[in-house]
Amino acid sequence: MFKIEAAELIVARLPLKFRFETSFGVQTDKVVPLLVLHGDGVQGVSEGTMERAPMYREETITGALALLRDVFLPRVLGQSFANPEALNDALGSFRGNRMARAMVEMAAWDLWARQLDVPLGTLLGGRRDHVEVGVSLGIQPDEAATVDVVRRHVEQGYRRIKLKIRPGWDVQPVRATREAFPDIRLTVDANSAYTLADATRLRALDAFDLTYIEQPLAWDDLIDHAELQRQLSTPLCLDESVTSAQDARKGLTIRAGGVINVKVARVGGHAEARRVHDVAQAFGAPVWCGGMLESGIGRAHNIHLSTLPNFTLPGDTSSASRYWNTDLINEPLEAQGGLMPVPAGAGTGVTLNRAFLASVTELREERRP
Ligand code: OSB
Ligand code: MG
Questions:
Q1: Among residues 30, 162, 164, 250, which one is catalytic?
Q2: Rounded mean pLDDT for each run of 10 residues along the chain, 369 residues in total
Q3: How far apart are CA 318 and CA 101, in angstroms?
Q4: Known active-site residue 3
Q5: Minimum-distance ligand to the CA of 237?
Q6: Is 164 a known active-site residue?
Q7: Could you tell me which residues come within 8 angstroms of residue 142 by beta carbon, excluding any fewer than 6 positions away?
Q8: Which of 3, 30, 162, 263 is catalytic?
Q9: Counting Cβ atoms within 10 Å, is residue 284 exposed (0-12), middle (13-18) or buried (19+)?
Q10: pTM of the entire structure?
Q11: Which residues pair with 359 in a beta bridge?
Protein backbone atom coordinates (compact mmCIF):
# COMPACT_ATOMS: atom_id res chain seq x y z
CA MET A 1 0.00 0.00 0.00
CA PHE A 2 1.36 3.44 -0.85
CA LYS A 3 -0.17 6.89 -0.50
CA ILE A 4 0.26 9.81 -2.89
CA GLU A 5 0.48 12.89 -0.73
CA ALA A 6 1.83 15.47 -3.15
CA ALA A 7 3.15 15.86 -6.67
CA GLU A 8 5.68 18.08 -8.42
CA LEU A 9 5.46 18.82 -12.12
CA ILE A 10 8.76 20.03 -13.55
CA VAL A 11 9.83 20.92 -17.08
CA ALA A 12 13.56 21.23 -17.73
CA ARG A 13 15.56 21.78 -20.89
CA LEU A 14 18.91 20.16 -21.66
CA PRO A 15 21.21 20.86 -24.63
CA LEU A 16 22.00 17.68 -26.58
CA LYS A 17 25.69 16.98 -27.26
CA PHE A 18 24.92 15.97 -30.85
CA ARG A 19 22.59 17.09 -33.60
CA PHE A 20 19.97 14.35 -33.91
CA GLU A 21 18.41 14.20 -37.37
CA THR A 22 15.57 11.79 -38.18
CA SER A 23 12.99 11.53 -40.93
CA PHE A 24 10.83 13.96 -38.94
CA GLY A 25 13.34 16.67 -38.22
CA VAL A 26 16.46 17.87 -36.41
CA GLN A 27 16.79 18.03 -32.64
CA THR A 28 19.49 19.96 -30.77
CA ASP A 29 17.99 20.13 -27.30
CA LYS A 30 15.58 18.14 -25.21
CA VAL A 31 12.63 19.38 -23.17
CA VAL A 32 12.24 17.00 -20.22
CA PRO A 33 8.93 16.82 -18.34
CA LEU A 34 9.30 15.20 -14.90
CA LEU A 35 6.77 14.07 -12.34
CA VAL A 36 7.73 13.54 -8.70
CA LEU A 37 5.21 11.78 -6.47
CA HIS A 38 5.66 12.09 -2.71
CA GLY A 39 4.28 9.67 -0.13
CA ASP A 40 5.19 7.80 3.04
CA GLY A 41 8.51 9.64 3.27
CA VAL A 42 9.73 8.50 -0.17
CA GLN A 43 9.62 9.92 -3.68
CA GLY A 44 8.96 8.33 -7.03
CA VAL A 45 10.18 10.08 -10.17
CA SER A 46 9.25 9.63 -13.83
CA GLU A 47 10.05 11.31 -17.13
CA GLY A 48 7.58 12.09 -19.90
CA THR A 49 8.63 11.17 -23.43
CA MET A 50 6.09 13.28 -25.31
CA GLU A 51 7.64 16.16 -27.24
CA ARG A 52 6.72 19.80 -27.79
CA ALA A 53 5.28 19.05 -31.22
CA PRO A 54 3.41 15.85 -32.11
CA MET A 55 6.03 14.51 -34.53
CA TYR A 56 6.67 10.98 -33.20
CA ARG A 57 3.18 10.28 -31.91
CA GLU A 58 0.22 12.53 -31.17
CA GLU A 59 0.96 13.47 -27.56
CA THR A 60 2.58 16.79 -26.66
CA ILE A 61 4.15 18.27 -23.53
CA THR A 62 1.57 21.06 -23.36
CA GLY A 63 -1.30 18.60 -23.64
CA ALA A 64 0.19 16.21 -21.09
CA LEU A 65 0.75 18.97 -18.52
CA ALA A 66 -2.87 20.10 -18.87
CA LEU A 67 -4.17 16.54 -18.50
CA LEU A 68 -1.97 15.81 -15.51
CA ARG A 69 -3.09 19.03 -13.77
CA ASP A 70 -6.78 18.83 -14.61
CA VAL A 71 -7.58 15.12 -14.77
CA PHE A 72 -4.93 12.55 -13.84
CA LEU A 73 -3.33 14.03 -10.71
CA PRO A 74 -6.67 14.97 -9.07
CA ARG A 75 -7.65 11.28 -9.44
CA VAL A 76 -4.65 10.00 -7.47
CA LEU A 77 -3.63 12.80 -5.05
CA GLY A 78 -4.56 11.98 -1.45
CA GLN A 79 -5.38 8.37 -2.41
CA SER A 80 -3.79 5.12 -1.27
CA PHE A 81 -3.21 2.22 -3.66
CA ALA A 82 -2.39 -1.44 -3.07
CA ASN A 83 0.15 -1.37 -5.94
CA PRO A 84 0.87 0.52 -9.19
CA GLU A 85 -1.62 -1.62 -11.12
CA ALA A 86 -4.38 -0.48 -8.76
CA LEU A 87 -3.36 3.10 -9.48
CA ASN A 88 -3.51 2.28 -13.18
CA ASP A 89 -7.07 1.06 -12.69
CA ALA A 90 -7.97 4.49 -11.26
CA LEU A 91 -6.87 6.00 -14.61
CA GLY A 92 -8.08 3.04 -16.65
CA SER A 93 -11.31 4.56 -17.92
CA PHE A 94 -9.38 7.29 -19.74
CA ARG A 95 -8.61 6.68 -23.37
CA GLY A 96 -5.32 7.20 -25.14
CA ASN A 97 -2.83 9.69 -23.74
CA ARG A 98 -0.62 6.80 -22.71
CA MET A 99 2.56 8.83 -22.33
CA ALA A 100 0.82 11.20 -19.91
CA ARG A 101 -0.67 8.29 -17.96
CA ALA A 102 2.72 6.57 -17.94
CA MET A 103 4.22 9.54 -16.10
CA VAL A 104 1.91 8.81 -13.17
CA GLU A 105 2.27 5.03 -13.40
CA MET A 106 6.08 5.01 -13.69
CA ALA A 107 6.54 7.43 -10.79
CA ALA A 108 4.23 5.17 -8.74
CA TRP A 109 6.37 2.11 -9.54
CA ASP A 110 9.49 3.97 -8.40
CA LEU A 111 7.72 5.16 -5.23
CA TRP A 112 6.40 1.68 -4.43
CA ALA A 113 9.73 -0.05 -5.10
CA ARG A 114 11.51 2.43 -2.83
CA GLN A 115 8.95 1.88 -0.12
CA LEU A 116 9.50 -1.89 -0.42
CA ASP A 117 13.29 -1.30 -0.67
CA VAL A 118 13.55 -3.39 -3.86
CA PRO A 119 15.12 -2.50 -7.25
CA LEU A 120 12.43 -1.67 -9.80
CA GLY A 121 13.66 -4.35 -12.23
CA THR A 122 13.39 -7.03 -9.55
CA LEU A 123 9.86 -5.91 -8.71
CA LEU A 124 8.93 -6.16 -12.41
CA GLY A 125 10.29 -9.73 -12.52
CA GLY A 126 13.66 -9.03 -14.11
CA ARG A 127 16.79 -10.94 -13.18
CA ARG A 128 19.73 -9.28 -14.92
CA ASP A 129 22.29 -6.95 -13.36
CA HIS A 130 23.51 -5.74 -16.79
CA VAL A 131 21.60 -5.13 -20.01
CA GLU A 132 22.91 -5.17 -23.58
CA VAL A 133 22.83 -1.82 -25.36
CA GLY A 134 23.24 -0.41 -28.84
CA VAL A 135 23.04 3.12 -30.25
CA SER A 136 20.62 5.02 -32.45
CA LEU A 137 22.56 7.29 -34.81
CA GLY A 138 20.96 10.27 -36.53
CA ILE A 139 21.13 10.99 -40.26
CA GLN A 140 24.62 12.23 -41.22
CA PRO A 141 25.55 14.59 -44.08
CA ASP A 142 27.18 11.84 -46.20
CA GLU A 143 28.48 8.26 -46.29
CA ALA A 144 31.94 9.14 -44.94
CA ALA A 145 30.45 10.88 -41.91
CA THR A 146 28.14 7.89 -41.38
CA VAL A 147 31.00 5.38 -41.40
CA ASP A 148 32.95 7.66 -39.09
CA VAL A 149 30.23 7.94 -36.46
CA VAL A 150 29.51 4.20 -36.71
CA ARG A 151 33.22 3.45 -36.18
CA ARG A 152 33.38 5.60 -33.03
CA HIS A 153 30.44 3.72 -31.50
CA VAL A 154 31.58 0.26 -32.59
CA GLU A 155 34.91 1.02 -30.90
CA GLN A 156 33.03 1.86 -27.70
CA GLY A 157 31.61 -1.64 -27.72
CA TYR A 158 27.96 -0.94 -28.56
CA ARG A 159 26.30 -4.20 -29.53
CA ARG A 160 24.05 -2.89 -32.28
CA ILE A 161 24.16 0.11 -34.57
CA LYS A 162 20.86 1.63 -35.70
CA LEU A 163 20.90 4.17 -38.52
CA LYS A 164 18.07 6.62 -39.04
CA ILE A 165 16.92 6.63 -42.66
CA ARG A 166 14.41 8.48 -44.85
CA PRO A 167 13.38 8.29 -48.49
CA GLY A 168 16.43 9.30 -50.52
CA TRP A 169 18.87 8.42 -47.71
CA ASP A 170 18.55 4.71 -47.02
CA VAL A 171 20.53 2.29 -49.19
CA GLN A 172 23.51 4.70 -49.33
CA PRO A 173 24.37 4.87 -45.58
CA VAL A 174 23.52 1.18 -45.12
CA ARG A 175 25.77 0.04 -47.99
CA ALA A 176 28.66 2.23 -46.81
CA THR A 177 28.32 0.97 -43.23
CA ARG A 178 28.01 -2.67 -44.23
CA GLU A 179 31.07 -2.47 -46.49
CA ALA A 180 33.14 -0.98 -43.67
CA PHE A 181 31.75 -3.33 -40.97
CA PRO A 182 30.71 -6.67 -42.52
CA ASP A 183 29.95 -8.33 -39.16
CA ILE A 184 28.21 -5.79 -36.92
CA ARG A 185 24.58 -6.10 -35.88
CA LEU A 186 23.01 -3.35 -38.01
CA THR A 187 19.44 -2.00 -38.16
CA VAL A 188 17.61 1.01 -39.63
CA ASP A 189 14.73 3.17 -38.37
CA ALA A 190 12.54 5.14 -40.77
CA ASN A 191 10.12 6.67 -38.24
CA SER A 192 7.15 6.18 -40.58
CA ALA A 193 8.63 8.00 -43.56
CA TYR A 194 7.66 5.47 -46.26
CA THR A 195 4.50 4.09 -47.86
CA LEU A 196 3.76 0.81 -49.61
CA ALA A 197 4.61 2.57 -52.88
CA ASP A 198 8.25 2.47 -51.68
CA ALA A 199 8.29 -1.34 -51.32
CA THR A 200 10.83 -1.82 -54.13
CA ARG A 201 13.23 0.66 -52.55
CA LEU A 202 12.82 -1.01 -49.14
CA ARG A 203 13.35 -4.44 -50.70
CA ALA A 204 16.85 -3.28 -51.69
CA LEU A 205 17.69 -3.25 -47.95
CA ASP A 206 17.28 -7.04 -47.86
CA ALA A 207 20.80 -7.30 -49.32
CA PHE A 208 22.54 -5.95 -46.19
CA ASP A 209 21.77 -8.50 -43.49
CA LEU A 210 19.89 -6.06 -41.26
CA THR A 211 18.53 -7.50 -38.01
CA TYR A 212 15.31 -5.54 -38.65
CA ILE A 213 13.84 -2.48 -40.36
CA GLU A 214 12.09 -0.32 -37.76
CA GLN A 215 8.70 1.36 -38.41
CA PRO A 216 8.98 2.03 -42.15
CA LEU A 217 5.26 2.81 -42.60
CA ALA A 218 2.63 5.00 -40.96
CA TRP A 219 2.77 5.64 -37.19
CA ASP A 220 -0.72 4.20 -36.67
CA ASP A 221 -0.60 1.34 -39.18
CA LEU A 222 -0.38 -2.42 -38.81
CA ILE A 223 -2.10 -3.61 -42.01
CA ASP A 224 0.30 -2.09 -44.55
CA HIS A 225 3.25 -3.29 -42.48
CA ALA A 226 1.90 -6.83 -42.86
CA GLU A 227 1.72 -6.37 -46.64
CA LEU A 228 5.27 -4.96 -46.72
CA GLN A 229 6.53 -7.80 -44.54
CA ARG A 230 5.24 -10.29 -47.13
CA GLN A 231 7.50 -8.60 -49.69
CA LEU A 232 10.66 -8.47 -47.53
CA SER A 233 12.89 -11.11 -45.99
CA THR A 234 14.26 -8.72 -43.31
CA PRO A 235 12.00 -8.70 -40.23
CA LEU A 236 10.10 -5.49 -39.58
CA CYS A 237 10.28 -4.02 -36.07
CA LEU A 238 7.22 -2.14 -34.82
CA ASP A 239 7.75 1.02 -32.75
CA GLU A 240 5.22 3.88 -33.19
CA SER A 241 2.26 1.66 -34.04
CA VAL A 242 2.29 -0.53 -30.92
CA THR A 243 0.71 1.29 -27.99
CA SER A 244 -0.58 -1.70 -26.01
CA ALA A 245 -0.37 -5.46 -25.56
CA GLN A 246 -3.49 -5.70 -27.73
CA ASP A 247 -1.69 -3.87 -30.56
CA ALA A 248 1.24 -6.26 -30.10
CA ARG A 249 -1.07 -9.27 -30.33
CA LYS A 250 -2.78 -7.93 -33.46
CA GLY A 251 0.51 -6.94 -35.11
CA LEU A 252 2.17 -10.29 -34.45
CA THR A 253 -0.98 -12.22 -35.44
CA ILE A 254 -1.13 -10.63 -38.89
CA ARG A 255 2.71 -10.71 -39.16
CA ALA A 256 3.06 -6.95 -39.43
CA GLY A 257 6.56 -7.54 -38.07
CA GLY A 258 8.67 -10.00 -36.15
CA VAL A 259 10.25 -7.74 -33.51
CA ILE A 260 8.86 -5.09 -31.14
CA ASN A 261 10.58 -1.99 -29.83
CA VAL A 262 9.08 -1.57 -26.34
CA LYS A 263 9.03 1.98 -25.03
CA VAL A 264 7.55 2.10 -21.55
CA ALA A 265 5.85 5.45 -21.92
CA ARG A 266 4.46 4.80 -25.43
CA VAL A 267 2.44 1.85 -24.10
CA GLY A 268 1.27 3.57 -20.90
CA GLY A 269 3.76 2.39 -18.28
CA HIS A 270 5.66 -0.57 -16.86
CA ALA A 271 2.68 -2.88 -16.35
CA GLU A 272 1.60 -2.57 -19.99
CA ALA A 273 5.22 -2.76 -21.19
CA ARG A 274 5.54 -6.07 -19.33
CA ARG A 275 2.34 -7.30 -21.00
CA VAL A 276 3.74 -6.36 -24.43
CA HIS A 277 6.91 -8.26 -23.49
CA ASP A 278 4.84 -11.30 -22.46
CA VAL A 279 2.69 -11.29 -25.61
CA ALA A 280 5.78 -11.07 -27.82
CA GLN A 281 7.40 -13.91 -25.87
CA ALA A 282 4.33 -16.08 -26.43
CA PHE A 283 4.69 -15.42 -30.18
CA GLY A 284 8.41 -16.19 -30.10
CA ALA A 285 9.13 -12.58 -31.10
CA PRO A 286 12.13 -10.81 -29.50
CA VAL A 287 11.72 -7.36 -27.99
CA TRP A 288 14.19 -4.61 -27.14
CA CYS A 289 13.91 -1.41 -25.16
CA GLY A 290 13.68 1.79 -27.18
CA GLY A 291 14.68 5.25 -26.07
CA MET A 292 13.45 8.81 -26.55
CA LEU A 293 16.68 10.67 -25.73
CA GLU A 294 15.76 10.49 -22.05
CA SER A 295 17.56 12.13 -19.17
CA GLY A 296 18.85 9.80 -16.46
CA ILE A 297 15.38 9.45 -14.95
CA GLY A 298 13.74 7.90 -18.00
CA ARG A 299 16.95 6.06 -18.90
CA ALA A 300 17.03 4.35 -15.48
CA HIS A 301 13.39 3.26 -15.89
CA ASN A 302 14.28 1.82 -19.33
CA ILE A 303 17.28 -0.08 -17.98
CA HIS A 304 15.19 -1.68 -15.23
CA LEU A 305 12.49 -2.76 -17.70
CA SER A 306 15.21 -4.29 -19.93
CA THR A 307 16.05 -6.83 -17.19
CA LEU A 308 13.00 -8.92 -18.22
CA PRO A 309 13.96 -12.16 -20.03
CA ASN A 310 12.52 -11.57 -23.52
CA PHE A 311 14.57 -8.37 -24.00
CA THR A 312 16.96 -10.44 -26.11
CA LEU A 313 18.10 -7.73 -28.54
CA PRO A 314 20.26 -4.72 -27.48
CA GLY A 315 18.29 -1.60 -26.49
CA ASP A 316 18.70 2.10 -27.34
CA THR A 317 19.56 2.97 -23.71
CA SER A 318 23.15 3.99 -24.38
CA SER A 319 25.47 5.89 -21.99
CA ALA A 320 24.06 9.13 -20.57
CA SER A 321 27.37 10.89 -21.33
CA ARG A 322 26.67 10.45 -25.06
CA TYR A 323 23.74 12.83 -24.72
CA TRP A 324 24.51 15.30 -21.91
CA ASN A 325 27.41 17.21 -20.46
CA THR A 326 25.50 17.18 -17.17
CA ASP A 327 22.58 14.84 -16.53
CA LEU A 328 19.61 15.51 -14.24
CA ILE A 329 20.64 12.70 -11.88
CA ASN A 330 23.55 12.22 -9.47
CA GLU A 331 24.54 8.73 -10.66
CA PRO A 332 26.42 7.90 -13.89
CA LEU A 333 24.65 5.59 -16.36
CA GLU A 334 27.57 4.38 -18.47
CA ALA A 335 27.85 1.24 -20.58
CA GLN A 336 31.12 -0.71 -20.71
CA GLY A 337 31.67 -2.98 -23.68
CA GLY A 338 28.02 -2.63 -24.66
CA LEU A 339 26.75 -3.65 -21.24
CA MET A 340 24.84 -1.17 -19.10
CA PRO A 341 24.90 -1.94 -15.37
CA VAL A 342 21.46 -1.85 -13.76
CA PRO A 343 21.55 0.89 -11.11
CA ALA A 344 21.67 -0.73 -7.68
CA GLY A 345 19.45 0.26 -4.79
CA ALA A 346 15.72 0.68 -4.34
CA GLY A 347 13.40 1.85 -7.12
CA THR A 348 15.19 3.13 -10.20
CA GLY A 349 18.32 3.49 -8.06
CA VAL A 350 18.91 7.04 -9.30
CA THR A 351 18.26 10.41 -7.67
CA LEU A 352 17.57 13.89 -9.03
CA ASN A 353 20.46 16.35 -8.90
CA ARG A 354 18.21 19.08 -7.48
CA ALA A 355 20.74 21.89 -7.69
CA PHE A 356 21.52 21.27 -11.36
CA LEU A 357 17.85 20.61 -12.14
CA ALA A 358 16.90 23.99 -10.67
CA SER A 359 19.40 25.67 -13.01
CA VAL A 360 17.73 24.18 -16.12
CA THR A 361 14.09 24.28 -14.94
CA GLU A 362 11.56 26.21 -17.04
CA LEU A 363 8.47 25.34 -15.01
CA ARG A 364 7.80 23.87 -11.57
CA GLU A 365 4.44 23.41 -9.82
CA GLU A 366 3.38 21.60 -6.68
CA ARG A 367 0.04 19.84 -6.51
CA ARG A 368 -1.73 18.65 -3.38
CA PRO A 369 -5.09 16.95 -2.78
O1 OSB B 1 12.15 6.04 -33.16
O2 OSB B 1 13.32 5.14 -31.67
C3 OSB B 1 12.87 6.16 -32.19
C4 OSB B 1 14.33 9.28 -30.51
C5 OSB B 1 13.22 10.09 -30.48
C6 OSB B 1 12.05 9.66 -31.04
C7 OSB B 1 11.97 8.39 -31.63
C8 OSB B 1 13.07 7.54 -31.63
C9 OSB B 1 14.28 8.02 -31.10
C10 OSB B 1 15.51 7.24 -31.12
C11 OSB B 1 16.57 7.63 -30.11
O12 OSB B 1 15.77 6.41 -31.95
C13 OSB B 1 16.90 6.54 -29.16
C14 OSB B 1 17.73 7.08 -28.01
O15 OSB B 1 18.95 7.22 -28.17
O16 OSB B 1 17.15 7.40 -26.94
MG1 MG C 1 11.92 4.02 -33.64
A1: 164
A2: 97 97 94 97 97 96 98 97 95 94 98 98 97 98 98 98 98 98 98 98 98 98 98 98 98 98 98 98 98 98 98 98 98 98 98 98 97
A3: 25
A4: no
A5: 2
A6: yes
A7: none
A8: 263
A9: exposed
A10: 0.98
A11: none
